[in-house]
Write a structure and sequence with these properties.
The chain is of the alpha+beta class and 530 residues long. It contains twelve helices and 23 strands.
């Protein structure tokens, strides 16, 4: 198979256009092309008057491919990707804690190997979880065990479902292929900035769960890990709680894919003296613009082109005070959502469905912080800071889970908003006009102000006075790292315990978390093959 790179195509290209372009680039007759499949597609929008697609295409020919490649520039021979799962030999069923991307893919690989994993999730299945989340967004009644953070699919279920990642690990192809085979759109296999959307992701995680069960695995919802039992430095069992009753599951392998919000589990690990450390993370707010404004800024006259869809952006600046400010988890045509999971604490996130057709577009606007910003050596001190900010946001919103919001113009002037402009906040159950700068330490507020000003010079309209800030965004990543051996991926404290994914401090998004889950599953399988 040949991969042909750097194919420039207009926005209205067709399959015929692609084949014709490939034939020209390879200097062959079109009849020699047996098949062609898009491997990667990106948008080149550097020139607003000439926006086009840039493709890499995998091609099968009816002629000698080696000979064609030798005389063609921008083409190479490639082998189709194939992931092979080793077969489980013997041993107790491994326990996977958490059904976010890391836990879900760890359990899937273990199930495909024949290990019959036990996947436990403190929240509910995605259908009942969705009902709880919708009820919270309309009534303000929070279920602390079933919300945007906890439940089937993890925090990513109520997000944009973005699948772009910085990882170069080849296992990411396995993740994409599994997503597609379980109901995700085919285009995630080739789009440079792929996304599934909350609506499609819910279907996909249910189908993955079903395969785990069909392969002999067990999935237990509303079940929480409450203790890890070890003997001679090795895992021997897990203690779980379900329906207010505790149960012990004998196992020699536990994958801790607990997510970035399992704070009570973090505290349990600390009390058991399992080695953890505070790590750098970020805090800030959601910034929300009219989608049409962002589309025009990014795509100019092509802004309404259906093939381009809602426009994306990604920016970062380094300030004179030494802080980094950046946008994260951008949701084109999406909503800002209330992602609270603890009583008396308020946190936001962004979400969009596959169509990305909501009125606004939003992104997290974050300031990097490190453990050195906080006094003491307590490994949970960054988590304590997160809680402090969320409590202030809760209080500022009226102590009823209404979110504090502020026009950008007012935030830049450090004054409370008294009215809104063109942008209506999308968060529920409601919102309160506020001065969100009072939530943060001065260095964060000033960094956000300077960041908005700098980014306004990079993206027209980003600093528009009618844009809206919603606080507080504090769960962009885990505030801790559960220390593990780089080779075995086991906890440095207990053999057979595998800290995994974003919550353990080893991933930063759906794909990297899923890949880490696969890697941990592979390590367990290696210990159980003859």
């Amino acid at each position: 198979m040949i991969r042909v790179n750097n194919i420039h195509l207009p926005l209205d290209y067709t399959d015929y256009t692609v084949r014709k372009k490939i034939a020209k680039q390879l200097r062959i007759d079109e009849s020699a092309i047996k098949s062609c499949t898009i491997f990667r597609r990106s948008v080149d929008a550097r020139k607003k008057d000439n926006i086009y697609f840039l493709l890499s295409v995998d091609v099968e020919l009816n002629t000698n491919e080696d000979k064609i490649v030798k005389k063609s520039s921008g083409a190479q021979i490639v082998k189709p990707y194939h992931y092979s799962v080793k077969k489980w030999s013997d041993g107790t069923s491994p326990v996977v804690v958490g059904s976010g991307p890391a836990g879900l893919f760890a359990a899937l690989i273990l199930a495909q190997s024949g290990a019959k994993p036990i996947l436990i999730e403190r929240g509910k299945d995605v259908d009942r979880r969705t009902a709880d989340v919708n009820n919270f967004w309309t009534s303000g009644k929070l279920n602390t065990q079933s919300n945007v953070q906890f439940g089937e699919g993890g925090a990513g279920t109520f997000s944009d479902g973005k699948l772009n990642s910085g990882t170069k690990d080849v296992r990411q192809r396995k993740v994409f292929e599994e997503f597609v085979s379980h109901g995700a759109p085919d285009e995630i296999l080739y789009n440079a900035k792929p996304h599934i959307g909350t609506d499609k992701l819910k279907i996909t995680v249910k189908n993955i769960r079903q395969e785990i069960i069909e392969l002999g695995g067990t999935v237990m919802f509303e079940t929480q890990l409450v203790d890890i039992n070890a003997k001679d430095g090795k895992v021997v069992s897990a203690t779980i709680s379900k329906d207010n009753k505790t149960e012990i599951i004998e196992t020699d392998s536990i994958i801790l894919a607990i997510g970035h919000s399992a704070r009570d589990t973090f505290e349990m690990l600390y009390n058991k003296k399992i080695p953890i450390e505070a790590k750098s993370f970020s805090v800030g707010a959601r910034i929300e613009h009219l989608r049409e404004q962002i589309d025009r800024s990014q795509y100019g006259k092509f802004a309404r082109n259906k093939r381009l869809g809602a426009a994306n952006y990604k920016m970062n600046v380094h300030l004179e005070n030494g802080r980094g400010v950046y946008t994260f988890c951008m949701c084109p045509g999406g909503k800002v959502v209330n992602a609270s999971s603890e009583e008396g604490r308020l946190v936001t996130n962004g979400m969009s469905e596959f169509a990305r057709n909501e009125v606004n577009s939003n992104s997290a606007l974050l300031v990097g912080v490190s453990p050195n910003d906080f006094a003491g050596e307590h490994p949970l001190r960054c988590m304590h800071f997160q809680r402090e900010l969320e409590e202030k946001a809760f209080a500022l919103g009226g102590e009823n889970y209404n979110a504090p919001v502020q026009r950008v113009a007012d935030f830049l002037q450090r004054q409370k908003s008294l009215n809104l402009g063109e942008v209506t906040p999308s968060i529920g159950p409601n919102y309160v006009l506020s001065d969100i700068g009072t939530i943060f330490p001065e260095y964060i507020t000033e960094s956000l102000i300077q960041g908005i000003k700098h980014m306004g010079k990079k993206l027209k309209g980003f600093d528009d006075g009618d844009a809206v800030l919603t606080a507080v965004e504090s769960r962009s990543s885990s505030p801790i790292r559960i220390l593990r051996n780089n080779e075995t991926l086991e906890s440095v404290g207990i053999k057979g315990l595998y800290p995994c994914g974003e919550g353990a401090g080893y991933a930063g998004g759906i794909i990297s978390a899923a890949v880490d889950g696969i890697k941990c599953a592979e390590k367990i399988i290696e210990e159980h093959i003859s």
